[in-house]
Amino acid sequence: MTAVPAAGRAPLSPLGLAFLVVASTGWGLNFPIMKFLLSEWPPLSSRGLCGVVGALALGLVAVARGQTLRVPPGMWWRLALVSTLAIGGWVASMGLALIWLRASEAAVLGITIPVWVALVAWPVLGERVSLPRALSLAVALAGIAALIGGGGLDASLGKLPGILFALAGAVCVGLGTVLTKSFKLAMPPLSLAAWQLAIGCVPIAIIGVLIEQPQLVALSRFGWASMIYMTLIQFCLCYVCWFAALERLPAATASIGTLLVPVVGVLAAAAMLREPLSTSDVAALVVTFAAVAVALRT
Questions:
Q1: Is 6 within a domain?
Q2: Does the residue 94 lie in any domain?
Q3: What is the pLDDT of residues 30-41, one digit of tens each?
Q4: Number of domains into which the chain is organized
Q5: Distance (Å, rounded) from C-alpha 10 to C-alpha 23?
Q6: For a disulfide at 132, which of 72, 128, 230, 298, Cβ 3.0-4.6 Å?
Q7: Secondary structure of the chain as H, E, C letters
Q8: What is the mean predicted confidence (pLDDT) over 202-228?
Q9: What is this structure's pTM?
Q10: Are residues 132 and 297 in contact, defined by beta-carbon separation less than 8 angstroms?
């Protein structure tokens, strides 16, 4: 995600809001789709290969829009570090997390990213952890506790690896986001996204193919549809709409708008996968929302 100038008190662009809704809805629907795909294909192979193809498609979109794919001299190592964390860490960790977690649980844990951004910004950017930011972290931990304790001790221990993977992915994105701000990667947004996807997903795809040895014949027509969705919608359309929204909306508005992602994820998981919508899920969603709201306001 790229920082944009604040738009002041100018009226919000209806087209920008429409782009934001499309991106957030597409990312939210991806959680139950990823969960379904795990029943046919392993996580690293599916996520990695979709990301590689998505990177190629996004690169073509960038070139079609007149954006150069050239990486400025001296920026490769910074681009590689940020991409490995923000994309590679997220893609691998969240894919593995879904082995133990329901799609709705992964969606809730995924929106803790702004909290980790606020926390990581302290040592990296020198932004002190204010009282509101510390409060947001405490509230986020309360939301995670509600998610862990919802099914009793046995259930909590059973999904603990998934929770740790999901949190690791969120922390990686938080660290990658802060480093992106610190490094000031001077590239067109779509070109930057294409390179980040490629650098982050190629190693995961290679590791997945070598270790998991996926078989194309294992994919049903719904599995292929899921792969196509992850490639064209999650990695391509959603990113194009996200950057289009950033061009038309204040960054704060766009960030808050992404809170639609877990709502869509939780509701879509209930509708598409028949996942139960428990009281602990709702409590975790509400509490985590509160934490993110505090983090965004500070």
A1: no
A2: yes
A3: 999 999 999 999
A4: 1
A5: 22
A6: 298
A7: CCCCCCCCCCCCCHHHHHHHHHHHHHHHHHHHHHHHHCCCCCHHHHHHHHHHHHHHHHHHHHHHCCCCCCCCCCCHHHHHHHHHHHHHHHHHHHHHHHHHCCHHHHHHHHCCHHHHHHHHHHHHHCCCCCHHHHHHHHHHHHHHHHHHHCCHHHHHHHCHHHHHHHHHHHHHHHHHHHHHHHHCCCCCHHHHHHHHHHHHHHHHHHHHHHHHCCCHHHCCHHHHHHHHHHHHHHHHHHHHHHHHHHHHCCHHHHHHHCCHHHHHHHHHHHHHCCCCCCHHHHHHHHHHHHHHHHHHHC
A8: 95
A9: 0.81
A10: yes
Chain segment 23-82, per-residue pLDDT in tens: 989 999 999 999 999 999 999 999 999 999 999 999 999 999 998 999 988 889 999 999
Domain of 92, in residue numbers: 14-297
- Asked whether residue 8 is assigned to any structural domain, the reply reads no
